[in-house]
Structures are given as structure tokens and as C-alpha cells.
Design goal:
Oligomer: single chain
CATH topology of the domain at 91-276: Glycerol-3-phosphate (1)-acyltransferase
Number of helices: 9
Helix content: 40-55%
Shape: globular
Number of strands: 8
CATH superfamily of the domain at 91-276: Glycerol-3-phosphate (1)-acyltransferase
């Protein structure tokens, strides 16, 4: 299906373009054993970024022509995941069974550590079910990203105007969830290696409450893709840092959602502590 066949703002559309997909066993994915080449050993960053940049460029061109669908997005994500694995980045995902058992859309709420999660989560989640993201609004104004994020039905927020952001998320997010598309939310104001619950807003819980869908907690450790000194998206790739991602069991929101928000915070903090020990 081409982008021209898709109702505008309808979210991702399932197609049949891709072939390489993440295979889960018992809800778990682990990077297959891979022999790392000489260049990947000497300069993993130099190996990964050409694939990353090429994927963004090609995806943008296709989206601009109306020829970029959900499966194309997953293909792009898979290529970057494989590029990371080829230089020795070890990825382990657990709890995918919670996504597989969902009857409809859910709000997936997680911590935000690096560029990596926005690049590889489409492959890890999209293999199972339709998904989109809440992203910073500046991406919708950046020519190379604009057509991509609009095509995948992403939702843009300012991160500086909480009331306007909440209104946008409740309206557009409710529309996506009502059509069965899950939404990934990073409630932090910015990416950070350290998890600070005080900087973790309840916007995802409020969306789930309004849309009457469950929450899926998401904990991740993706410091293998560092935040850049000059351009935050373009830091070094460090294969010595294992990538760990965990999805939790669905949580139904009751009342004002304060207890459920705390459950998500506790889930993230617990996994980060376990991974660092």
C-alpha cells in the first residue's frame, strides 16, 4: 500500500514489503551470534552511521513520494538493528509476550536514554503489532524527518507547553488507540542516562485513562548509542555496553492513575538497577 492510499493521520498501515523480522521465543529476543569484522571492531561508529543516515535519507524520499508504509518503516528499523548487531552490540529484549497478548492498542511508557530506542523499537514492537510514537515537535519541522513522522502517524509535542501537549496527546493519541495502534511515550523532558522519576510526567497514564486502554511499562538501557556532544542524536557506538529492553505486564488505569504511574516508575527503576549490578 502506498502512502497515497492511506487516510491522512490514520497511523501506520500493515503491508507485506519486509522479510527480515525479529523472532521472539517465549517473549524473548537475543542478538544471534555474529562475527564482528575488522572495521566493526576498530570503528563501530563508522560502520553504523552510514546505514543509519542512508536509511533516513531513503525513507524520507519514499515518504515524500507517498510510497512509504508501515512495513517499510519496520524494514528501515531492522536494517539499523542489524547494523548495530554486526559491530557487536548485544541486544536482549524480554516481556514481548505482553505485547503479543494484547487485544488492541496500549500506551507503552518508558524511559528515554538515547537515539537508539526511537530507531530500533519500531522493529521490536512493529513485528508484533501496529505502533507509533509521541515525538518532539521539531521533527515535524525538519525536512528530512517531516514526511517520515507524518506518514507513520506520529504525534508531535512541544515539551515546553504542558497544557497544549496534553490536549494534543489526548486528542490525537485517542484517535490512534481507537484504531488499534499502540503508542510509545517517553514522558521525560529530555534523553538522559540517569533515570529521574521527578522528570517523568504522567502524560502517558492520562492518555491511557482517557482512551480506556492498558499501559505497558517499558524499561530500557541503550547507552551503547551515546548522546553526542555537539549533535545529541549523533554520539559514538560502544558495543561494550549491552542493550537491554523489558516490557512489563499490562496495567489497567483506575481512578486518577497515580498508583499506576508509580508502578511504571518502579518497573523502570528496578530493571535499571538490576542491569547495572
Amino acid at each position: 500500500m502506498s502512502g497515497s492510499d492511506r487516510p491522512e493521520g490514520d497511523g501506520p498501515v500493515l503491508g507485506s514489503a519486509g522479510v527480515d523480522r525479529v523472532l521472539y521465543e517465549g517473549g524473548v529476543y537475543r542478538t544471534p551470534s555474529t562475527k564482528v569484522g575488522l572495521l566493526g571492531t576498530v570503528s563501530p561508529t563508522a560502520c553504523v552511521y552510514p546505514s543509519f543516515i542512508r536509511n533516513v535519507w531513503q525513507s524520507s524520499a519514499l515518504a515524500r513520494k507517498g510510497c512509504y508504509g508501515f512495513e517499510d518503516w519496520i524494514d528501515s528499523s531492522m536494517r539499523v538493528l542489524r547494523a548495530l548487531e554486526r559491530v557487536g552490540v548485544d541486544v536482549e529484549v524480554s516481556g514481548a509476550e505482553h505485547l503479543q497478548e494484547l487485544d488492541g492498542g496500549a500506551v507503552i511508557i518508558g524511559n528515554h536514554m538515547s537515539t537508539m530506542e526511537t530507531v530500533i523499537l519500531p522493529a521490536l514492537i512493529g513485528t508484533i503489532r501496529p505502533v507509533t510514537f509521541i515525538l518532539k515537535g521539531s521533527l515535524f519541522r525538519t525536512p528530512i524527518f517531516r514526511d517520515i513522522v507524518e506518514t507513520i502517524g506520529a504525534i508531535g509535542v512541544t515539551r515546553t507547553q504542558p497544557r497544549q501537549d496534553l490536549k494534543t496527546v489526548l486528542q490525537e493519541g485517542g484517535d490512534r488507540l481507537g484504531k488499534g495502534t499502540s503508542i510509545v511515550v517517553f514522558p521525560q523532558t529530555t534523553r538522559a542516562l540517569d533515570f529521574d522519576p521527578e522528570q517523568f510526567s504522567s502524560i502517558g497514564v492520562k492518555l491511557a485513562q482517557r482512551a480506556k486502554v492498558p499501559i505497558i511499562p517499558l524499561a530500557l538501557s541503550t547507552q551503547a548509542w551515546a548522546n553526542g556532544k555537539w549533535l545529541k542524536d549523533f554520539g559514538g557506538i560502544d558495543p561494550s555496553c549491552p542493550v537491554r529492553i523489558a516490557f512489563g505486564a499490562p496495567i489497567d488505569v483506575e481512578g486518577r492513575g497515580q498508583a499506576e504511574h508509580q508502578q511504571v516508575v518502579d518497573f523502570i527503576a528496578r530493571h535499571l538497577a538490576n542491569w547495572s549490578s
